[in-house]
Design a protein that fits this description.
homodimer, alpha/beta, ornithine cyclodeaminase, domain 1, Rossmann fold, 2 domains, seven-stranded mixed sheet, 35% helix
Chain lengths: 298, 298
């Protein structure tokens, strides 16, 4: 048996934004309709080398493939592989040596899709909190879906803020380091373990949080959930370790106040109301993107 | 990045019984001493194609690698892959396209090690229940550890029993289809969901059960646990879905009656007492065997 190992240059060529957006959107809607299989992720910790490994499996009903993703982080460097397996006979179809990029892109696409779907159409200014890869990608992928006039950047390290502003400028965006001034649309992308400064959310009509992906993390001040339309990518997972769960445990909102992200994408919502989207990441989106890439390349 | 994909012929050459026995023994002892990381396995079901997929991750402290195993079964055919990842930086080291064989061998080695350790030294007759791959392997690997004079085989389908007897005969063993007559050492390797005939265990001084690897399965009549020295490969996992858990729920034994398989291998036991070993399979043994194979091949 030989197994095609598909490297990042090949994957990048196949995984166009159109392909990723379509795969992620379909997977999120399928997930909302209970047409996916997503077992709880596995986590391995390597304290001696400041590392951890997350293993996520996913399947969208009717897809020719299921996927097992191994994403590891060591000393803040991400790595990743996706094994794509034939869902009719268990034969491995391909290994995507994507170096974690497919996860980054599906996270960006999921965030951009729900941010766009819940933010009033005329909003063209976003504030982004955090300065790592997703801070850049959430905004750039959102720009595929709507025009953006200005980006405000907030982070704890000024040099990282400046670097991100320069990266946005290179993409032709007007970016400035003053996110705590607020914006109508706020995207949080940090690995914070306690809530970010509440003033950053003062003017928000929509908030998307994508950084809270494991127990112990939390970006959003619980009070931002009060009175908002709430969307979660997975109800149980967001209750367990998302910002939504933190807000429920803080007594700010009940445990049944959320809509499914996929249902919002499918049906739309009243965008005159303030809204919050909590994304913890689901294996069905990995599976959908990986399957779409393999289908293109085969 | 290129990733070595190691195929079954290469793996078979590296994974000698000596290597597998040593890796599995060390991993079971490490597991008993809480020096392993083994998150709960993930399961994906594919009812439309009579398939399922089990994903197990494992790490033995101090090993250069951790392992993620994807084992799937479709229409009773097993498949499998092991991804071996550098445990200091998360870089994938190799993909073992082992077609499920490393799992088969580590299961055989774990069973043979504990069967040998708990069965009185003079016993040279075993009864094996079940007729699939592990029925053959449990006996052949046990023969690496002690001489065997006779094998009795029991199964529901006479033609499968005859075929297994012929396979044993080809290996020079005196095999006959009469396992319900009993034997001093009984090994169960079925996927039974209700207890096997109790008369098969009448003369047993030692029983090893390796088939009960998920909720809903159960091979051993609960009463065989009464008064026996009990060893489990993982206390929580065997309580959750092993034969030991079934016996505890039946009220036959308390939930703290078991020794760790690794502790028995390390320290030995009084082999004049009747004993039962319940193996549900642990990811640390996968990791140890895969790491040892990669270490030999690199």
């Amino acid at each position: 048996m030989t197994l095609p190992v598909i490297d990042l240059p090949q994957i990048s060529k196949a995984a166009t934004p159109d392909l990723v957006f379509k795969a992620v959107r379909d997977a999120l809607i399928a997930h909302a309709e209970d047409r996916t299989a997503v077992p709880p992720p596995m986590v391995l910790d390597f304290p001696a080398s400041s590392g951890d490994c997350h293993v996520k499996a996913g399947y969208v009903e009717g897809s020719p493939y299921y996927t097992v993703k191994i994403a590891s982080t060591f000393a803040a460097v991400n790595n990743g592989l996706m094994l794509v397996v034939d869902a009719t006979n268990g034969t491995p179809a391909a290994l995507l040596a994507d170096e974690g990029k497919l996860t980054a892109w599906r996270t960006a696409a999921a965030g951009a899709l729900i941010t766009d779907a819940m933010t009033p159409p005329d909003v063209d200014e976003v504030a982004v909190l955090g300065t790592a890869e997703q801070a850049l990608l959430q905004v750039l992928w959102l720009r595929h879906l709507r025009p953006l006039r200005r980006v405000k950047v907030w982070g704890r390290r000024p040099e990282a803020v400046d670097k991100l502003c320069a990266a946005f400028a290179q993409e032709g965006l007007d970016a400035r380091p003053d996110a705590l001034d607020g914006a109508a649309c706020v995207i949080t992308t940090t690995s914070a373990r306690s809530p970010l400064p509440v003033e950053a959310f003062r003017d928000a009509v929509h908030i998307t949080g994508i950084g809270t992906d494991m127990p112990g993390k939390g970006e959003l001040p619980p009070e931002v959930f009060a009175g908002a339309v709430i969307a979660t990518d997975d109800h149980d997972q967001c209750l367990d370790h998302g910002d939504y769960g933190n807000a429920v445990r803080a007594g700010v909102v009940p445990a049944n106040a959320d809509l499914a992200v996929g249902a919002v994408l499918r049906d739309g919502i009243d965008r005159t109301r303030r809204s919050v989207a909590d994304l913890t990441g689901i294996g069905a989106t990995d599976a959908a993107v990986a399957a779409a890439v393999v289908a293109v390349l085969r």
